[in-house]
């Protein structure tokens, strides 16, 4: 897992061949972009623009992926995102190939709680179970872009 400021994203572009294009898109993102999926490089690099309301931790699922990693950027609002080692969790919904997702019970022990807000980004790999969309205080409106990058491009 990586957590940093979007302004520092150039330092991470060498970590994956698709990161230069992904971070260029994120740095130039127009908040007026409609919700939906946008292919940046076929199915290897996809931007998902989404607007939603955060919810209590008890109402948000833990998840991890196998084929794609996530780069998550919040452009409006503030949310918490739980993070823990995927191997420590108990599966509640087995892996679904078409959606590249597996769902889990909340961790039995403490997990890291990341604050995702304007100006920063998080990168999640297969070992990084995460719980996005958790409210900070009361529910809030979020504008987020999730970049799905194929791990073996």
Quick recap:
The protein has 153 residues and is mainly β. 7% of the residues lie in helices and 50% in strands. It has a six-stranded antiparallel beta sheet with strand order 1-10-5-12-3-2, covered by helices on one side. A three-stranded antiparallel beta sheet has the order 4-8-7, with no helix packed on it. A three-stranded antiparallel beta sheet has the order 9-6-11, with no helix packed on it.
Q: What do you see in this structure?
A:
With 153 residues, the chain is mainly beta. The protein has a single domain, classed as YhcH/YjgK/YiaL (Jelly Rolls, Sandwich). It is built from one helix and twelve strands. A hairpin with a 4-residue loop joins strand 7 (91-96) and strand 8. It starts with a strand and ends with a strand. The mean pLDDT is 96.
Secondary structure: number of strands: 12
How many domains? The number is 1
Number of helices: 1
Q: What is the general shape?
A: globular
**Mean of all residue-level pLDDT scores:** 96
Beta-strand percentage? over 45%
Q: Biggest sheet, open or closed, and with what strands and sense?
A: 6 strands, antiparallel
Low-confidence stretches are none
- What's the architecture, going by CATH? Sandwich
CATH class: Mainly Beta
Compute the gyration radius: what is it?
15 Å
**What would the CATH topology be?**
Jelly Rolls
Would you tell me the structural class of the helices and strands? mainly beta
Q: CATH H level: which superfamily?
A: YhcH/YjgK/YiaL
Strand order of the largest sheet: 1-10-5-12-3-2
Helix fraction bin:
under 10%
Along the chain, the helix and strand elements come as: EHEEEEEEEEEEE
> N- to C-terminal separation?
19 Å
């Amino acid at each position: 897992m990586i957590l940093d400021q979007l302004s520092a994203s150039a330092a991470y572009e060498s970590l994956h061949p698709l990161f230069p294009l992904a971070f260029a898109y994120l740095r130039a993102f127009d908040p007026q972009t409609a919700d939906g999926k946008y292919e940046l490089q076929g199915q290897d690099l996809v931007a998902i623009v989404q607007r939603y309301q955060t919810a209590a931790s008890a109402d948000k699922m833990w998840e991890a992926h196998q084929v794609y990693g996530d780069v998550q950027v919040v452009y409006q609002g503030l949310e918490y995102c739980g993070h823990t080692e995927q191997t420590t969790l108990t599966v509640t919904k087995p892996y679904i190939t078409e959606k590249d997702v597996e769902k889990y019970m909340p961790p039995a022990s403490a997990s890291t709680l990341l604050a995702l807000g304007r100006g920063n980004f998080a990168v999640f790999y297969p070992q990084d179970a995460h719980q996005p969309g958790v409210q900070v205080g009361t529910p809030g409106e979020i504008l987020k872009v999730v970049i799905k990058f194929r791990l073996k491009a």
